Input
Amino acid sequence: MLLIKCPYCGERDQSEFTNGGEAHVTRPKNPEQVTDREWAEYVFIRSNPKGIYYERWVHTHGCKKWFNAVRNTSTDEILLTYKIGETPPPIKKFQNTLKSPSGEPDVGSGNFTVKKL
Amino acid sequence: MTDNKIYFKFDGKRYGGNKGDTIASALLRNNVKLVGRSFKYHRPRGIYTCGIEEPNALVQIINEYNEPNVRATVKKIYEGMVVKSQNRWPSLKTDFGSVNNLLSPIFSAGFYYKTFMGPKGFWKNLYEPLIRRTAGLGKPPREFKSKSTHLHHNIDILIVGGGLSGLLAAKKLAGTDKDVLLIERENELGGILKNSNKVKSVNDQKTSEWLEKTERLLKNSANIKILKNTTVTTYNYSNHLTAIEDRSVGIEPDNKKSELVLHKIRTENTILANGHIERFLSFRNNDLPGVMLAASFEKYIQRYDVVPDNNPVIFTNNSSTFSLLKLLIDRKSMPKAYVDVRDLKKIEKETLDLLEAYNIPFYPKSEIEGCDGNSGIKNISVRTKKNKIIKIKASMLCVSGGINPDIHLFTQSKGLVKWDEKILTFKPEKSFQKTITLGSVSGNFIFKDIIDEVNKKLNFIDGVNDIDLKIEVNGSEEFNIKEIWETKNNNNSLWSKSFIDLQNDVTTKDLTQAIREGFDRIEHLKRFTTNSMGTDQGKISSINALGIVSKLLKKSVSEVGTTTYRPPYNPVSFSAIAGRSTYEFYDPERKTPIHPWHIKHNAVFEDVGQWKRPWYYKKYENETMNEAVQRESKQVRDSAGILDGSTLGKIEIKGKDALEFVNMMYTNSFTKMKPMSAKYALMLGEDGMVKDDGIVCKINDNHFITTTTSGGAANVLSHMEEFAQTEWPNLNVYLNSITEQFATFNISGPKSRIILSRVFNNIDFSNHKFPYMTFNTFDYLNYKVRILRASFTGEQGYEIYVPPKYALTLWERIFYYSRDVDLVPYGTETMHLLRAEKGYIIVGQETDGTVTPLDLNLNWMIGKKKKDFIGKRSLTRSDIIKGDRKQLVGLVPVDKSYGIEEGQHVIEDKNIPSQIDKPIKMLGQVTSSYFSPTLNHSIAMALIKEGNRKIGSQIYVSTSNMNVIPVEVVKPSFFDPENKRLLS
Output
């Protein structure tokens, strides 16, 4: 179980939280003026990277506040949490947690238990 | 009885054991070696190990709780314990299923996948029952009884394992300001010091003396807590571990006390000092009762004072068996022979000296070819270095195939392991979390190095000092091992097998066959052969399998890799996981304030989310649901009915921007709506699909109250919160769940106005003063009630909102005033029937997350002039405006005597072929169906393709007995389509 730092309450067990999918997906200002494709991008399409992911969480069984988190999806490490409205830190800041172009670190992903020679 | 024996029964026979004995040690004390039959071939099996790693000795405890698959090597006996062997019929000695052994050629790897493919019906009726009877393990308890609790720990340092290195780590941390938890699996601290004869003295004291002193020191340290009889089973992310404590060790389970405690531990650092597990070797009939791991044999002597056999043969490929040899000689039990795979030059001098001094038959550079015997070892065949077979009469064989650091937890923590060519095993290489490994789990098998390791690895912790340790060992400190996984064998009789997984009966031949068939990836091979997939997870054999596979594939073990170690470390009882959350405590029950009245009036309840709602009321003992619903429905239409609607979700929306927010959340327009009026409203997701419905009451532009479906209240609130917080944080709105602040009664029927006028005699309920879809708050007695004119039945109706504490009195008062008007309490089923007559939808019944308002013909609910609301843009997506979507229609059977079944397919063709060989074209499905007592025929709603265009036509609905009935498509409003009654 992950330990997640709610920006309002502090560190709590994962079971108190609900994941809310990708963060910083902006709702089009004038939905009537966007194309079907652009609207579908907003409603359905998410980036789903292996590696650094900006996502939303809500402290469901706590303060009920939504906040943003930066998570490495290949190791499940939550690297940072910050409040809604705060500027997301650049992805560069976290790049050193990744070890290969595919985002596969040499430890922690669970895909390789044995050290490669 | 005055002796200190504890008596128990095994397969009906009474045996005596000592206090502290496990079932296994007590059986060995009584010279019982045959304890079970194997999983697939029903071969006789004995006790192979002396601990958690046991693959063979699984037994069933017979008591109130009926524990199956108990490891005899772990479970301690108690007075009167009843133990039975498993997997045998009719008895352990003469087992019918052992014929499987002779059929073994057909039971080879992948057997289940290949053999039971057909013919159709054979699996369900023949194969499965047959396999279930012959394969498989123990029997589960008949009733689930949980006697466990959960405890949480938030600590600084967790030490897993109270052996030498765990104790040294704890000692180092004693007196610091760190909160330390030390977990030990056995009932005593000590680990290797207790299990073996390897360590002679510690700090010039006897090991037992040193242990006693150290334990006292730790117990007196305020910062250290020790848990014994506790096994860490899971190592999760963020240093979260779970451990199971057995509180009924050596005592009979007691109803009143919790037997197991599940500890949930969150720690800053984890120290893994959980030691190692000895591995076995594969040779012919390496499963015969009498074969035992060498260190386990030693543990039985050291810990339990049981010598399983006075003159065993020892078979080894490494230095660790010296201590067993010495122990046996010290006890004047001379081994029959000492067989060592290693070259004479590699064998340590201490061993050679001892063998020579006591004249023990010694075979260097030799191996065990196999063993023979019926239900236990009789003869052991040794292949000497000159390739000669020598037979030795003996009844036990002690085997050591090397030592594996117990890396299970380490790999669960996502740490990386590395193959060590010197000690021929995997050892931790790099931690992923804040994990430290100490002692043999880190691959350090040298006692005198442990203290340096402890000091070096723990010195980063604030406030610790270096500690000293002087350790003296029996024999050589060096560890050397020769690679061998399987010995050569001569005999190829059907009965002779060389096993790689004892519990799942996987032979080395199965591995070869799997590779031949192309399953050469270790994860595939594991699943195809079921190697290491038993409850022991191959603790003594999985590394051996890698060794064999690497040889077959001509690859290094590193290249072959390991399969993934997954939690739990050992089998966990469901009872421990369940804790207190069983039966009535499994899920909270929510009850309305009227609940006691419902019970008094014979309500049958339905679960809606966590709510208990009256489903229908039984008027007399034998009234069926159908009879009750027909009666209730008729009475509502004839006079009046009352429904407890307290479970309805209620959300209060306040704030300067409440109007703008509500306009965004619902499809309808609320801008021009008058204060103190209400609207039936639809909520969509951004995908345009109906998410919820309810009534929105506008008090003013800054204050709204909305209702939601009973089951959807929490979701709707969180959906609103999500948009309020993340999309429009600039809006000034506050959301609050007020579901439980009000009880709600729905009164409807032609006489509802009369009833209300009597109860609230100061309120004018006339259509003129109190029109449909308006509401107001009134003073009543000493509290306030809110009354809304609305209806879900199509009748004249009112909803009354009242503070819960006055609700029951008011409910009874309403009945008091309705004595002569025939007011009927009705349940959810009648509500569903009545709304279906009107064609009103239920979200979740007519909708399933793929239905738009347009599909439901609810276009009128969409605020046309609204620029935006959630889901609006999706309603004009090309796929949504395509004409061929399913639309909601009504269905009426052509022959009115027929009933339509809910959930049935709607089809165009009236003929269903007797043999269906291609899919039948389906138009849609019946979403609701009832027999209407008012119309006296069946009515149904259905979602069907291009439904609107089909109105007036005849189509067909399938039935559960493979028939079809013709139905007419109508508009989904069967009763009072002009709403005369609703607005009366």
Summary: Chain A has a mean pLDDT of 87. The longest helix of chain A spans residues 36-43. Chain A is about 5% helix and 30% strand.
